[in-house]
Design brief:
The chain starts with 7 loop residues before the first strand and ends in a 16-residue tail after the last helix. The protein folds into 3 domains: 195 residues, no CATH class; 220 residues, Alpha-Beta Complex (Transposase Inhibitor Protein From Tn5, Chain A, domain 1), CATH 3.90.350.10; 91 residues, no CATH class. Helix content is 41%, strand content 21%. 35% of the residues are buried. Helix 3 packs across helix 6, helix 6 crosses helix 17 and helix 7 packs parallel to helix 17. The protein is α+β, with helices and mostly antiparallel strands. This is DUF4277 domain-containing protein. It comes from Moorella mulderi DSM 14980.
C-alpha cells in the first residue's frame, strides 16, 4: 500500500536538536530561570527557554529577531523544547524575544549569570581551569542606540579595522581548551589595561583560595602596568597572589636592557619546537630576575627562528627609509665645496658620527677639484682670465651592513615574557612559553564569534537589549566550544579520525566544521512517528555519538521538557 504523505511534515533539522540537548546538558535555561524574575502565569515560555531558542537560531541560521519566529515554523519544536512545553512558533516573535532580553538586562547579573553557567559546565565536564587566557574583541555596529544602560556603544580602537563604525567589546576568559570561564560586555572605548583589573577581581571573588593557587593567568602585554603587577601580587583575605604569564611591552624600560644582556651573555637554553608542524619555529631562551615595584619577577628572553611577517616588513621599510635619508644627506654633502681637505674630512667625520647607529657601512672619500671663477660677477670683460682655485668635496659610499642587519633581525625575533612563576624546576622556560602560546585559545573563540554564521549585524537599537544579546552571543559561543571539546575528547579514545564533508580527515575538528556536518539532516514526521533523513552517511551519526548523543535526539522529545 502506498504511504499517505498528505499528513507528513518535513523539518530541516540541521544541528538544532544537538544544540538544544547541549543547552540542556549545560543547564542554561535552568540557571537563567532561577535568577531572572518572570511570571509563569503571564509568560507561556520562560526567559531561559527563549534564550535557548536564540542560541539554537544563532548557531543554525543567524536571523534578525523579527525572523526567528519564521525559523521556528520549520523546526520540530517538540524535539527541541519537549512536548510538555506546547511551544508554538509565535512564542519566538520579536516582541516575546525582546521582552526576554529586557528581563535578562533587568536582572543586573549578566556577568554573574555567565560565570555561573560556565563554571557549572566546567564542573559537569571535569574541565581543568588551571591555565586562564584573557582577551577582548570589538563588535562593530551601526546606527543610534537608545536607553540608559551601562554599555557605552561608541567609537574606539577597532580590532575589526573599522574605525568609522561604533562598537562595543566582548571580553572573554577561557581555559587552554578554549572553554569560556568568564564573559563580559564592555564599552566601545574600553582599554584592555583598564579591563584586566576587573577580570582579576572577578577571578579572585569567583574562585576559592585553593583553586586560585592552581590558576595561571595569561594575557597580552596590555596587562603589564605597575598597578596591574601590584594587583596580581596582592595577598589578602586568605587569597594568594595570582600566578600569571604575560608579554613585557616593547616600550617597558626593562625590555631593551634585558634583551641586550641576553645577547651579551649568549647563554641560551635550547627549547626546540613547540609544534609538530614542518615549518614550526625553533626556540631558545634565557631567564633573568628583576625587581619591579618592590616585587621580583622572572623575565624570559625568547628567541624564535621565525620572524613575524609584520615585523619583517616593518624592518624592511625602516631600512629602506634609512637608506633614502642617508642617500639624500650624502648627496647634499657631496655638493658642498670645502676650502681645504681637512675641512672635508671633518665633515665626513661628523656625518659618520651622526649616522653611526644605522645598519649601513659608510665610507668617506675626499675629491680635489679645480674650480674656475671670475673676480666679479656678471659678464667678464674682454680678455679677462678666470682665476683657478682648488676646492674639495666629501663623498659617502653606502653599503648594507649585513652583520648589523642580522643582529636587528635577531632582536626583532626575540620577545620577553614576564611571570611570577619563580620556580624554574617546576616551571622551566619551555613550560612557561608553551602556556603563553596557548593564548590562541581565546583568539580561536573570537574567530568563531566573528563568523557571519554567529555574529552578523546587531538587529537591535536599544542598547540594553544589545547588552543582553551580547550575553546570548557569549552563551552560543560556550555551547559551540563544548560541542568541539566533547567531540575532540571522544576522538582521543578512537583509532580513526572523523571524516568531515569533502572527505577531510580530522582528529581535532572545529565547532564550525562540526556544525556544517549536520546542515543537511532532515526529519520526517507522521503523527507521533519520526524518521531521520541523513544525506551524509554514517560519519554524521558518529559525530553525534562522539558528542555524547545519538540519532534518538532527533526522533524523540526529551522527557520532562527541554
Amino acid at each position: 500500500m502506498p504511504v499517505a504523505i498528505d499528513n507528513m511534515r518535513f523539518f530541516r533539522a540541521g544541528p538544532a536538536a544537538l544544540i538544544a540537548r547541549l543547552c540542556d546538558v549545560l543547564k542554561i535555561a535552568e540557571i537563567i530561570d532561577a535568577v531572572v524574575e518572570w511570571d509563569p502565569v503571564q509568560c507561556h515560555l520562560s526567559p531561559g527557554n527563549r534564550v535557548k531558542a536564540l542560541i539554537i537560531n544563532l548557531l543554525v541560521d543567524r536571523e534578525a529577531l523579527y525572523h526567528v519566529e519564521r525559523f521556528y515554523e520549520n523546526q520540530d519544536l517538540e524535539v527541541l523544547f519537549g512536548a510538555e512545553q506546547q511551544v508554538r512558533p509565535r512564542d519566538f516573535n520579536d516582541d516575546a524575544l525582546g521582552r526576554a532580553l529586557d528581563k535578562l538586562f533587568a536582572s543586573g547579573q549578566l556577568k554573574k549569570l555567565f560565570s555561573s553557567i560556565a563554571l557549572t559546565a566546567a564542573a559537569t565536564h571535569n574541565v581543568p581551569i588551571t591555565g586562564i587566557h584573557v582577551d577582548t574583541t570589538s563588535i562593530s555596529v551601526q546606527g543610534a542606540y537608545e536607553g540608559e544602560g551601562d554599555l557605552d556603544i561608541t567609537f574606539g580602537f577597532s580590532k575589526d579595522h573599522r574605525p568609522d563604525l561604533k562598537q562595543f567589546l566582548i571580553g572573554l576568559t577561557v581555559n587552554k581548551d578554549g572553554l569560556p570561564i568568564l564573559g563580559q560586555s564592555l564599552g566601545g572605548n574600553t582599554s584592555d589595561k583598564s579591563w584586566y583589573p576587573e577580570v582579576i577581581e572577578e577571578l579572585v571573588q569567583t574562585l576559592s583560595p585553593a583553586k586560585l593557587k592552581e590558576v595561571i593567568f595569561v594575557a597580552d602585554c596590555a596587562l603589564v602596568t605597575k598597578d596591574n603587577l601590584a594587583l596580581l601580587m596582592q595577598e589578602e583575605d586568605n587569597k594568594p597572589a595570582l600566578q600569571f604569564i604575560s608579554l613585557l611591552p616593547e616600550n617597558f624600560g626593562l625590555n631593551e636592557e634585558i634583551k641586550a644582556e641576553a645577547f651579551r651573555t649568549g647563554t641560551w637554553q635550547e627549547i626546540g619546537k613547540l609544534s609538530s608542524k614542518k615549518d614550526a619555529a625553533y626556540y631558545k631562551s634565557q631567564s633573568f630576575v628583576r625587581e619591579i615595584g618592590g616585587h621580583d619577577f622572572r623575565l624570559i628572553v625568547v628567541h624564535s627562528t621565525t620572524l613575524d611577517k609584520r615585523k619583517e616588513n616593518s624592518l624592511l621599510k625602516k631600512w629602506a627609509k634609512q637608506r633614502e635619508v642617508l642617500e639624500k644627506a650624502a648627496q647634499a654633502l657631496s655638493r658642498r665645496p670645502f676650502a681645504c681637505e681637512a675641512d672635508a674630512k671633518k665633515a665626513i667625520e661628523l656625518f659618520l658620527r651622526e649616522y653611526r647607529h644605522q645598519p649601513f657601512i659608510l665610507k668617506g672619500t675626499v675629491d680635489e677639484e679645480i674650480a674656475s671663477s671670475y673676480v666679479r660677477p656678471g659678464r667678464p670683460k674682454k680678455g679677462e682670465q678666470p682665476q683657478n682655485t682648488v676646492v674639495y668635496h666629501a663623498h659617502i659610499r653606502i653599503e648594507e651592513d649585513r652583520e648589523a642587519m642580522a643582529h636587528e633581525k635577531d632582536l626583532a625575533s626575540t620577545f620577553v615574557l614576564i611571570t611570577n612563576l619563580m620556580d624554574t624546576k617546576a616551571y622551566p622556560d619551555r613550560a612557561v612559553l608553551k602556556e603563553y602560546k596557548e593564548q590562541n585559545a581565546v583568539e580561536r573563540q573570537f574567530r568563531f564569534l566573528k563568523q557571519p554564521v554567529l555574529l552578523g549585524p546587531i538587529f537591535l537599537k536599544n542598547k540594553n537589549r544589545v547588552e543582553a544579546m551580547s550575553f546570548v552571543f557569549q552563551l552560543a559561543l560556550l555551547v559551540a566550544a563544548y560541542l568541539e571539546y566533547r567531540v575532540r575528547k571522544s576522538l582521543e579514545q578512537e583509532e580513526s579520525p572523523l571524516i568531515l564533508p569533502g572527505k577531510r580527515k580530522s582528529t581535532n575538528p572545529t565547532a564550525r566544521a562540526l556544525l556544517e556536518m549536520f546542515d543537511y539532516l532532515l526529519v520526517v514526521k507522521q503523527g507521533s512517528d519520526r524518521a531521520l533523513i541523513n544525506y551524509h552517511g554514517s560519519e554524521v551519526i558518529r559525530a553525534l555519538e562522539l558528542a555524547g548523543f545519538g540519532k534518538e535526539i532527533y526522533l524523540f522529545p526529551p522527557r520532562g521538557g527541554g
